[in-house]
Q: What sequence folds into this?
């Protein structure tokens, strides 16, 4: 635990260095992936993960620029995924550019959107209110089919954490 008021990402670069070193000393082989909360999204963390050749996914805060990128996703780009019987969920992918100058980078933005379709509120509310979760990844990882299934499992797990029982398959 840290003393005082400290941001979530304080010391994360050193932590990643130690984590990767420990994994390699333990004999871990194959690709390594780090998942992080939005509080850890920083240029320094991404640079260090890239330097260690570690794949990463980081939840993003839905700031105005991220919301604009999500709103620009066309209706045909969304793919349905399993969700609760009383809801609807979809995923889509786009590119998102963040930073300026040397810190400028383009990342993959994968978005899950959900909405309930049945409940105590008027029906018209369910047709317009999407809840959004965004994740950023390295640009074009060339993921295999199995890795895509893992991503969908991660996104479905978010349904369970947000209080909705997802139909994880």
A:
């Amino acid at each position: 635990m840290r003393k005082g008021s400290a941001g979530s990402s304080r010391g994360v670069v050193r932590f990643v260095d130690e984590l990767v070193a420990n994994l390699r000393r333990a004999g871990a082989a194959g690709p390594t992936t780090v998942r992080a909360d939005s509080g850890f999204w920083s240029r320094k963390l991404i640079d260090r993960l890239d330097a260690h050749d570690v794949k990463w996914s980081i939840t993003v805060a839905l700031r105005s620029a991220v919301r604009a990128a999500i709103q620009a996703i066309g209706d045909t780009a969304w793919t349905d995924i399993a969700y609760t019987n009383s809801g609807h969920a979809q995923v889509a992918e786009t590119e998102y550019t963040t930073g300026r100058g040397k810190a400028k980078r383009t990342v993959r933005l994968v978005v899950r959107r959900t909405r309930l379709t049945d409940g105590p509120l008027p029906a018209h509310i369910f047709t317009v209110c999407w809840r959004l979760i965004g994740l950023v990844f390295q640009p074009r990882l060339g993921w295999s089919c199995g890795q895509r299934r893992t991503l969908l499992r991660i996104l479905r797990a978010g349904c369970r954490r947000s209080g909705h029982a997802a139909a994880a398959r």
In short: The beta strands are 33-36, 55-60, 79-81, 87-98, 105-116, 131-137. Residues 159-169 have pLDDT under 50 and may be disordered. The first strand starts at residue 33 and ends at 36. Helices lie at 12-25, 43-51, 64-71, 123-126, 145-161.
